[in-house]
């Protein structure tokens, strides 16, 4: 362990961090260059393995080294120029694409922030002796999520995309492009979570926006192009807010370091108010909060691995990450209130809309937005307890959403449908996939998984901070969330009413590997979560807020362990016990004579009536068409009014 | 866990089904009298359950058994946690997990009537969940803790601060206990539109288990009603029992004097009551009695 300690530790870091950020970029170029599928797949596997390995090595060596906060790369003139050049190239590329597709006005959103950043870099105030990269517990945690989940998604994608192009022969096979973007995305995320310099953050921010735009438009179908441009303008709008925030920050708060900005915000410096508000606003677009949620819904047109990546490991988590960073500065301010309000509202409103969806991927999309809303609200309240809850929500969400997206994708390949109604009796049709789906959904809302205890903590903190409206949103949102998940789970375990040919599970081996690892991670996390809170997340809060709080009192912890053990053990033991109970299996009651099985009955005219069971959706009452426009309107109005209040108040 | 709490827990596990069954016997007796019938003997629920246990197990699918058993154990756990003085919010979380297993036990059969009943049961959960969570929040605001053992040791009854929460909780109690007008997921009479709803495909041992679980649940819910009243003064225990009995009688009265409503009216009315009774109470507590 000698090499982990002391000065060596520092040197290891200075080698690993650039490697982690740059290696995916190099692989992205390779992916684009290699046009032989087999070779490219091999390289993709290897690179994903390297990323996961290096990522874990970084985390382990850093933790072994005593978790000291590292501030690295003070003198980076060359890197700064490279990044500026890359940002300009990015803006030009976006502009060209906008002109090709005749969305001229969007290019302004790309050019304006780049121009601001270029001006700041070349003529702005020079700040000496500031680190550009900071390694602390939050960034290491984010690295682990991005690296492990992202790496696994790439492993899954190799198999999935093979099947995808086998079925969708009408879509041009541009897998070289697809994998290139996937790796680019990972590199951008690593850069984003490790950077402390706001100019660097801005570049990686724009890069993730563009990557998601390119991924959504992958199929080049009309709807994909439209949706990709919607995603682009919304995220670029956030990018504009971010750039203006940084510009203002550099001239008025005299810093371009995120840490310094947060510190200034914590002590209540007036110059920090506007940048914090603008950056938080930008985070709302990235985290797909209302009124910007539509881009993430539209992103579903892309192949499943990109949805999994956008929803779990990258993109939306970038928004959450930056909000967590800002949360000490937002605590108790008007900005914090705004973020908490928008988050709480999104949590409730989108969970209601999720009830009306029967498309599996759509339910997942709305539940992502809804869950992100809860995390955003946690960040907005900005107390150690809420950040504790938010961090756990994030970890659990990352794993279970990635698992669920991959599983729904694999199910779709085998079942030829991703409609939840068609998943009736999935446990008997495609048992393996159904079990993974069950674990994923359980992770999203059921005790003892961390999601629930995080909600407990969020509720408690919302009460403590007297945020009445948030308390109401959490209470009502919990009820609606449980509703759509439970009815999906019920669908999976119901006995099949399907007649005809059984379905064949054509899930590829690598897809299976990724699914298994996710499921194992999920259960491990659930078991280790009391330990994790003591050794990692607790200190993370101390690092962030400067003081420690005992979020999980011992009696709760004991109770929790008992619940964890019981909820896992009880169904298992009950199952074993029940196996020995002699059950006389009879047909179900149909108010008519069954036709030999439970799938049809004879009605009063003597005809055979097929039985078809379906869930409630209330789509006329609370459908996306009906609710989306009004809730976006409300959120927009809220956002505009509060932004004016914040900025006006700080002027 | 000291020996006093263990006694409470053991007492709950042993006596809750007896009390719950007895309450149901009283319910059936009073209901019968309200309908000018003689009604069954007081101990009829116990006779029924014993009889059910003696029958051979008939089910549409064998897996129903273990799901119901899980429902049962989690429900007992909920009550045990509550009477051990643990965190009330966690109690309700475990309760909702238990309720999920009941839902599974019903839908797993893929029987039309059980499925309709269980979908409606889900809607019932949607209707009562906000009020339940808000009740916990109310206790926390009034007493500064979620822990049941600390709430009962406080100087004043929580209801002094929580009249609105109490109204909302009693309102959703009708839904939780599946009583008319909110008995949408099941019905007392077989010859209605959804037959027996969620319990349609449960028979013999399984139905008995469901019945006993309901008794445990009743005692737990009545315990929460009592929690509104109980404080460090021993007399409050007597008052609490009186309040619990009064609430239980009220539920019987409502059950017998109203007709089943449609689900949308149920959700609408319960959410409105939750917002106006509990929500306004919450507002007052947070703004006026800010601790």
Describe the 3D structure.
- The complex is a heterodimer of chains A (651) and B (291).
- Chain A has 651 residues and is mostly helical.
- In chain A, 75% of the residues lie in helices and 3% in strands.
- Chain A is built from 24 helices and six strands.
- In chain A, the strands form two sheets. Chain A has a three-stranded antiparallel β-sheet, with no helix packed on it. Chain A has a two-stranded antiparallel sheet with strand order 1-2.
- In chain A, a hairpin with a 5-residue loop joins strand 5 (600-602) and strand 6 (608-610).
- The model of chain A is unreliable at 1-7 (pLDDT under 50).
- By secondary structure, chain B is mostly helical.
- Chain B has one domain.
- Chain B has helices spanning 3-34, 44-54, 63-83, 88-107, 112-143, 148-152, 163-176, 204-227, 235-257, 263-287, and one strand at 57-59.
- Chain B starts with a helix and ends with a helix.
Which features would summarize this protein structure in a list?
heterodimer, A: 651 residues, mainly alpha, 2 domains, globular, B: mainly alpha, 10 helices, 1% strand
Helix content of chain B: over 70%
As an assembly, this protein is heterodimer
The overall number of domains of chain B is 1
By secondary-structure content and strand pairing, the structural class of chain A works out as: mainly alpha
What percent of residues of chain B are in strands?
under 5%
Q: What is the C-alpha radius of gyration of chain B, as a whole number of Å?
A: 19 Å
Count of separate structural domains of chain A: 2
Which term fits the overall shape of chain B?
A: globular
- Distance N to C terminus of chain A: 53 Å
Largest interface: A-B, 61 and 65 residues
Residue share in helix of chain A: over 70%
Element order of chain B: H for helix, E for strand: HHEHHHHHHHH
Poorly predicted segments of chain A = 1-7
Distance between the termini of chain B: 30 Å
Compressed to H and E, one letter per element, the order of chain A equals HHEHHEHHHHHHHHHHHHHHHHHHEEEEHH
């Amino acid at each position: 362990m000698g090499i982990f300690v002391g000065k060596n530790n520092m040197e290891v870091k200075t080698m690993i961090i650039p490697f982690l950020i740059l290696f995916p970029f190099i692989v992205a170029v390779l992916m684009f260059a290699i046009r032989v599928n087999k070779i490219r797949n091999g390289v993709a596997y290897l690179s994903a393995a390297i990323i996961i390995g290096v990522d874990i090595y970084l985390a382990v060596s850093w933790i072994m080294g005593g978790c000291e906060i590292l501030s690295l790369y003070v003198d980076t003139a060359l890197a700064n120029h490279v990044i500026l050049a890359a940002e300009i190239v990015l803006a030009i590329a976006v502009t060209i694409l906008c002109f090709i597709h005749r969305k001229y006005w969007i290019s302004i959103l790309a050019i304006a922030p780049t121009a601001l950043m270029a001006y700041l870099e070349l003529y702005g105030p020079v700040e000496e002796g500031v680190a550009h990269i900071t390694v602390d517990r939050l960034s290491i945690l984010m690295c682990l999520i991005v690296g492990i989940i992202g790496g696994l998604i790439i492993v899954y994608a190799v198999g999935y995309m093979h099947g995808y192009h086998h079925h969708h022969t009408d879509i041009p096979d541009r897998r070289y492009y697809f994998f290139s973007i996937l790796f680019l995305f990972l590199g951008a995320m690593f850069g984003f979570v490790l950077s402390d310099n706001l100019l660097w953050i801005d570049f990686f921010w724009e890069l993730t926006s563009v990557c998601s735009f390119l991924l959504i438009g992958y199929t080049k179908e009309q709807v994909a192009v439209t949706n990709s441009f919607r995603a682009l303008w919304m995220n670029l709008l956030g990018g504009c807010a971010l750039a203006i925030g940084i510009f203002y920050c550099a001239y008025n708060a005299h810093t371009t370091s995120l840490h310094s900005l947060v510190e200034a915000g914590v002590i209540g410096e007036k110059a920090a108010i506007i940048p914090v508000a603008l950056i938080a606003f930008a985070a709302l677009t990235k985290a797909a909060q209302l009124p910007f949620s539509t881009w993430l819904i539209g992103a579903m047109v892309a192949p499943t691995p990109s949805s999994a990546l956008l929803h779990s490991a990258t993109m939306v988590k970038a928004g959450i990450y930056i909000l967590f960073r800002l949360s000490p500065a937002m605590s108790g301010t008007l900005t914090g209130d705004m973020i908490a309000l928008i988050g709480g509202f999104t949590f409730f409103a989108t969970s209601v809309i999720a009830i009306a969806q029967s498309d599996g991927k759509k339910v997942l999309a709305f539940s992502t937005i809804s869950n992100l809303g809860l995390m955003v609200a946690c960040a907005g309240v900005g107390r150690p307890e809420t950040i504790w809850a938010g961090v756990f929500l994030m970890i659990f969400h990352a794993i279970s959403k990635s698992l669920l997206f991959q599983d729904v994708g694999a199910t779709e390949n085998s079942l030829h449908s991703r409609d939840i109604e068609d998943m009736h009796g999935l446990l008997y049709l495609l048992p393996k996939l159904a079990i993974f789906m069950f674990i994923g959904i359980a992770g999203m809302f059921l005790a003892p998984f961390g999601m629930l205890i995080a909600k407990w903590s969020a509720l408690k903190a919302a009460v403590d901070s007297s945020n009445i409206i948030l308390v109401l949103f959490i209470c009502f949102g919990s009820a609606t969330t449980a509703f759509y998940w439970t009815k999906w789970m019920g669908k999976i375990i119901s006995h099949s009413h399907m007649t005809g040919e059984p379905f064949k599970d054509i899930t590829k081996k690598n897809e299976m590997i990724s699914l298994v690892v996710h499921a194992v991670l999920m259960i491990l996390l659930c078991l280790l979560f009391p330990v994790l809170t003591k050794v990692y997340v607790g200190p993370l809060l101390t690092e962030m807020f400067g003081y420690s709080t005992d979020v999980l009192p011992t009696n709760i912890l004991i109770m929790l362990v008992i619940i964890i053990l019981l909820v896992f053990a009880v169904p298992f033991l009950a199952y074993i016990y029940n196996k020995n109970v002699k059950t006389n299996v009879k047909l179900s009651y149909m108010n008519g004579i069954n036709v030999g099985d439970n799938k049809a009955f004879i009605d009063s005219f003597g005809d055979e009536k097929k039985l078809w069971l379906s869930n409630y959706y209330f789509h006329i009452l609370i459908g996306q068409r009906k609710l989306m426009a009004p809730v976006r309107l409300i959120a927009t109005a809220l956002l505009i009014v509060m932004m004016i209040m914040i900025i006006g108040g700080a002027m | 866990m000291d020996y006093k709490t263990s006694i409470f827990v053991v007492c709950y596990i042993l006596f809750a089904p007896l009390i719950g069954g007895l309450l149901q016997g009283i319910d059936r007796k009073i209901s019968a009298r309200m309908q000018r019938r003689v009604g069954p003997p007081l101990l009829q629920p116990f006779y029924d359950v014993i009889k059910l246990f003696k029958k051979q197990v008939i089910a549409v699918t064998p897996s129903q058994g273990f799901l119901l058993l899980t429902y049962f154990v989690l429900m007992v756990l909920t009550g045990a946690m509550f009477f051990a003085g643990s965190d009330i919010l966690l109690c309700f979380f475990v309760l909702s997990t238990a309720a999920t297993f009941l839902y599974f036990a019903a839908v797993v059969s893929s029987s039309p009537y059980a499925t309709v009943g269980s979908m409606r049961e889900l809607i019932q959960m949607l209707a009562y969940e906000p009020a339940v969570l808000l009740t916990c929040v109310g206790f926390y605001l009034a007493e500064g803790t979620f822990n049941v053992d600390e709430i009962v040791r406080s100087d004043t009854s929580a209801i002094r601060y929580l009249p609105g929460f109490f109204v909302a909780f009693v309102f959703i109690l009708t839904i939780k206990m599946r009583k008319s007008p909110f008995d949408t997921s099941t019905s007392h009479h077989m010859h209605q539109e959804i037959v027996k709803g969620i319990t349609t495909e449960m028979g013999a041992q399984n139905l008995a288990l469901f019945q006993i679980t309901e008794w445990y649940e009743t005692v737990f819910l009545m315990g929460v009603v009592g929690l509104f009243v109980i404080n460090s003064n021993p007399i409050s225990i007597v008052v609490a029992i009186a309040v619990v009995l009064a609430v239980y009688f009220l539920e019987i009265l409502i059950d017998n004097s109203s007709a089943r409503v449609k689900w949308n009216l149920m959700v609408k009315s319960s959410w409105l009551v939750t917002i106006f009774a509990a929500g306004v109470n919450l507002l007052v507590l947070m703004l006026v009695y800010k601790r």
